[in-house]
Amino acid sequence: MPTFWSLPEIPRVLPFTVFLILTSFQGKYFAGSEYWIYGLKTIVATGLIWHFKSRLSELKWAISVPAVVTGILIALLWLGLDSRIPSLGQIYDFLNQQITGTLPVPEKPEAPWNPLVFFKDTPSLAWTFLALRVLGRSLIVPVVEEVFYRSFFYRYIVNPDFSSVAHRVWHLRAFILTSLAFGLSHPGQWIPAILCGTAYQALVIRQDRMGDAMVAHGVTNAVISAYAIYTGQWQFT
Q1: CB atoms within 10 A of CB 104
Q2: pLDDT tens digit string along 127-149?
Q3: What are the sequence ranges of the domains in the chain?
Q4: Which of 124, 137, 216, 225 could form a disulfide with 71 if both were Cys (CB 3.0 to 4.6 A apart)?
């Protein structure tokens, strides 16, 4: 029987779990902690992926026309649907108001991620955090999320012995649940995220490999980041 650390789930679940835990700490401790903790979680996730790379046979980027086109289309969809669809929080507040008659307590809007403003007195630090953000979203997040959702979660629903399931396998329940899980993990943009999850999963099944989904995910995030920086709409960073 394999030891806990040698289980195939560990290299696919642990980086994702650590990333989520550190994300929950962002902005909770001191002014600017969202930047420092984002940098920390990016470095930690990178280290974990590097440590487990020999156990992640699917960790091979695959640049293809379908991957790049999918990534660009999803980015355009994400940007185009911004503010057009209520967030999950807004839906919850509306339903709660209809059921209980209680008006929602307005939340203080979060300041957009903009290290160029927060660290305006130390430009080198500001650009360092901005670079970490863009590189983290474009290179590290696609690996962490795709390996978890597409390589582990989808295949685990098909068969708990997920390593025996080929990436090309089509399974309706797994497809729906994985897309929903991916979407609901992005409560502010849950509809685009669900569509995003379906597109990336379709790439994996069609190409029978993870690399195209990682590239598409990376292209999506890179395009959105470039748009945010170019237009100054920092809510997209």
Answers
A1: 12
A2: 999 999 999 999 999 999 999 99
A3: 61-236
A4: 216
